[in-house]
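User:
I study polymers; will you set down one protein's sequence and backbone structure tokens?

Assistant:
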Amino acid sequence: MNQNNATIAKAFYTSMSEKNIETMEKLVHPNVQFTAPLAKLQGKEAYLEALKGFTAFFKTLTIRALFGEGDQAVLIYDVDFSAPIGKVPSVALMTFQEGLIIRIELFYDARPFDK
């Protein structure tokens, strides 16, 4: 595992759990690409704006596992939202460039958000 990328991934999601946008901003590449079941974003400004809304929406985020290889890391975590959504297990596949997160691809079941 590329320890530096794993460290960055963990720092990013730890900051997310703490709702610390300033720290997250320092870890994201200006040309970040974000893909998830309910959103697709391009660029740091658009992504950070979405993060502000997301961090205001969840109660807790708990990291469960972290794996890495080469220029990628996979972080598995749970996000706990208020009812009726509840806990949403999630996976983030992150790609790194120049020590920053350039791509984030999220995997989760989006059905609870239809309620």
